[in-house]
Amino acid sequence: MKRGAFLCCTVFLLVSVGLAALAGERVPHAAIVINNDYEFTVENGVCAGSGTLDDPYIIGDWLIDAGYDDYGIRIHGTTRAFRIENVEISGAAKSAIYLSYVWNAEIVDCLFVGNWTGITFNFATYNQIKECTFASNTDGIHFYFSNENQVLDCVFEPNDTAIWFDASDLNLVRGNQVSQAHMAIYMNFGSEENTIVGNAFVNNLHHAHTDDPNIWDVDGAGNYWGGYKAIDADEDGIWDKPFEISADADKDNFPLVLNPFVAPPPPPACDV
Q1: What is the DSSP letter of 219?
Q2: pLDDT tens sequence across 17-65
């Protein structure tokens, strides 16, 4: 972004929030629609970056009440790198963030509440969602024909379906807390070779469903499945019996005994 555009964006922010606004405070903004690389503009909430991998466009610090709009942020058919950060979106009739035919996007530290879908990926590749919270959406994240994306260190509670893959392969779901969902993670229409590891699934009606083979453990460690108990004879923190995902033998071979996001209880001690 040119220096003049950056200064214009800075002035726009100061007028919007006032001189006393705290850094990182979310500011109300209308729904954002970007349909090509030339629409990464100040008017569309882009206030920094040049669109490269080392310096992505930044869409950040916005509070978007989608109201009657289908989308809070809709980006389609772009090639430039961008990051959406510290954005809160609610009320989207279709999807809070809809990314179609894009790659090299990051969505970081965002909040999605009360949308039909939190984030939709449609033919999207090499994107990352990290440290976001999804609450009271019908679907948290929905992938359509989208491969090699990452969902890292997010919180889902509650959503109808937390993470849904349709015909999407080679994605990574790691380090997430998924609770109070009707279906925590759902994979169909030939979704294969997705890696789901290091997550905690707690108080879900159904933890997982898949129609095709996927990867549920890596290097001798899998996921925590709330309500599942077996035997840990060697006390290595791994249940000795796999957790069955589907009738077709898809399974977590090394289910975790303890929730990795909950501090273990202190060792027993005698009162003196």
Answers
A1: T
A2: 332 234 468 999 999 999 999 999 999 999 999 999 999 999 999 999 9
Structure tokens at 104: 């090299």
pTM: 0.88
* Nearest 10 degrees: Cα torsion 27, 30, 33, 34: -40
For residue 220, what is the domain's CATH number? 2.160.20
Instruction: Find the mean pLDDT for residues 140-158.
Output: 97
In a domain, residue 261? The reply is no
Residue 105's nearest CA partner among 89, 91, 87, 117 is 87
How far apart are alpha carbons 138 and 150 in whole angstroms?
Answer: 21
Q: What is the pLDDT of residues 183-221, one digit of tens each?
A: 999 999 889 999 999 999 999 999 999 988 999 999 999
Number of domains in the chain: 1
Q: What angle do CA 77, 86, 42 make, to 5 degrees?
A: 55
Domain interval for residue 152: 3-252
CA distance 204 to 219: 26
| Beta-ladder partners of 188 | 166
Q: For residue range 226-252, list pLDDT tens digits in order.
A: 999 999 999 999 999 999 998 677 899
Residue 16 lies in a domain: yes
Q: What share of the chain is helix, strand, coil (3-state, %, to 5)?
A: 10, 40, 50
Q: How far apart are the first and last CA of the chain?
A: 67
Q: Which amino acid is at 261?
A: F
Domain assignment of residue 264, yes or no: no
Do the domain assignments include residue 90? Answer: yes
Residue 139 to residue 131: CA distance in whole angstroms: 17
